[in-house]
Design goal:
The protein is of the alpha+beta class. The chain is built from 12 helices and 17 strands. The strands form 4 sheets. Strands 2, 3, 4, 7, 8, 10, 13 and 15 form an 8-stranded mixed sheet that branches.
Length: 510
């Protein structure tokens, strides 16, 4: 409900902004404008940009080879996301790579990491090349982590000395102490007046646990949205804040456009605004019509950092050029509800209410207290709709890289089946009428709310799996409606369609 309310609020803000604009367009600047750097310094100072020649050539080569390897193995996919109750394919193809067992959710879609090599995890990749590609992305991740900490230290140092800021695009790399490998602090921290607690905070806000890789060839797209506020041209990614990140964490983006195409040389320099042949990142102050926007060109191997609260106070978009482009977007994902460790913990919590008779082996519930029933049934829904159905809706795409997720998903499904049994036991107990009428009505009313939501979501996911968009996908990418069963399958304690169960419970409380 909170997410839907947030989406409605965004739509209202967007509608109001477009109404205020009418037929006019807001001004924006590129490096060709005289006031570009002054605008950047005053309104966008938490955006740090680094040109490709500041990055080690060996790292460029490794990362760019990893992009091409993953593309060669068909590892990039357009996501079938859900916006305002409708399914859409993203114009950009993506793959999430990162810490084993980590996920990232955007636009009602949970992506599951292709795990990069990590100590203590046995990860079987489909080919040595995919292993090497994931390993290269860890090296990029480590490099960007160090650069982000340096940038934050530099920003803090400049603010503490109250010195006049210089345009970030030209800022020297040595604005703060370099860090040791993997981002550990330099021995000489004291000269930068960074207390240990502050440094720990800087580290945690730049310790990227995933990278979302993107790929798009604009010339292969039938249609691209036009940027609506400034007239910046074709958008690969619309205006947005990145979702589900640790508060005030830095986002790092490495860009690799496949330059050299003859179409890039067709731009008339006399035209106003950005060069449409070149990829740009666009920035604007969120829901503001006073401040001009920025459009910053992205050349092969450039990277940029969105520091501190920039992702909250500003919005960004990606403006398409003519050539194909890859990017690696490194994030500190909020994993409070998005890791295997978390969801297994939830399952274990729910199953504490299930007991087995030592003699007969019969299963029963320890408690029918409303709060306990509510907690268990909500975890049941979370496992089914936030994990199992999200995973299988994406078909067999992850098998292009690794089968690592199959075992944990099988374990989750085993837990979920036990929770189906627990739901049937709740139903059995309330039918026995052993509770007082008041207690039973309270339990049934609580149970009904969760079951009604479960029925609604099952209908929604079933419809999504059978939609025209889903059916248009190749076989190995087609969504699977899983778990699914018919009434003939006697190994399930409750039917897939819960309408009759819900009607029965409603009769009990009338």
């Amino acid at each position: 409900m909170k997410r839907r309310a947030g989406e409605r609020e965004k739509e209202l803000k967007k509608k109001k902004l477009l109404e205020e604009l009418g037929e006019s367009r807001l001004p924006y600047m590129t490096p060709a404008n005289a006031d570009f750097h002054q605008l950047w310094k005053t309104k966008y100072s938490k955006l740090v940009f680094r040109k490709s020649d500041t990055v080690p050539e060996e790292l460029h080569q490794m990362v760019q080879e990893s992009f091409l390897t993953l593309q060669k193995h068909d590892c990039f996919f357009q996501d079938l996301v859900r916006i305002k109750g409708k399914d859409f394919f993203t114009p950009v193809s993506r793959i999430l790579i990162g810490n084993p067992g980590c996920t990232y959710k955007y636009l009602n879609t949970r992506l599951f990491t292709v795990p990069w090599p990590a100590e203590g995890y046995e990860i079987k990749y489909c080919s040595p090349q995919i292993h090497d590609a994931c390993k290269a992305l860890i090296k990029l991740n480590d490099y960007l982590h160090i650069e982000a900490v340096k940038a934050l230290q530099g920003q803090n140092l400049l603010e503490s000395k109250e010195t006049e800021d210089t345009p970030v695009i030209d800022r020297e790399q040595n604005s703060a102490a370099s860090l040791r490998e993997k981002g550990s602090a330099s021995q000489d921290q004291s000269s930068f007046c960074v207390p240990e607690d502050d440094f720990t905070s800087l580290n945690s806000r730049t310790s990227y646990n995933v990278t979302l890789l993107n790929y798009m060839d604009p010339l292969q797209m039938l249609y691209l949205k036009q940027e609506p506020y400034f007239g910046m041209g074709n958008m690969a990614v619309s205006w947005h804040h990145d979702e589900n990140l640790v508060e005030r964490s830095t986002v790092a983006v490495y860009s690799y456009s496949c330059e050299g195409s003859p179409v890039e040389e067709t731009y008339d320099q006399k035209l106003q605004g950005r060069d449409p042949a070149v990829w740009h990142v666009g920035l604007k102050v969120a829901w503001d019509i006073e401040t001009p926007g920025l459009a910053i060109p992205l050349r092969q191997g450039d990277f940029y950092l969105m520091l501190d609260d920039l992702n909250m106070t500003h919005q960004h978009c990606v403006l398409a050029g003519f050539s194909p482009r890859f990017s690696s977007t490194h994030r500190v994902v909020d994993c409070s509800r998005g890791t295997l460790e978390y969801i297994f913990g939830q399952c274990e919590l729910a199953l504490q209410n299930l007991q087995t008779d030592s003699n007969s082996g019969a299963l029963s519930l320890k408690s029918l207290e409303t709060a306990v029933v509510k907690q268990v049934e909500e975890i049941h829904n979370e496992v089914e709709f936030e994990w199992l159905r999200q995973f299988w809706f994406q078909g067999k795409r992850y098998l292009k890289c690794t089968d690592w997720w199959l075992k944990p998903m099988a374990k989750l499904e085993e837990y979920w089946r036990k929770m189906e049994t627990m739901s049937s036991l709740v139903l059995h107990e309330v039918r026995k009428k052993e509770q007082t009428e008041e207690q039973r009505n309270e339990t049934v009313s609580c149970f009904l709310l969760v079951l009604t939501e479960r029925q609604r979501l099952r209908e929604e996911w079933t419809a999504r799996c059978q939609s025209e968009a889903a059916e248009s996908l190749p076989e190995d990418q087609k969504p699977e409606c899983h778990p699914f069963w018919t009434n003939d399958e006697c190994n399930m304690p409750l039917p897939y369609d819960l309408e009759e169960v819900i009607a029965h419970l409603q009769n009990l409380v009338q």
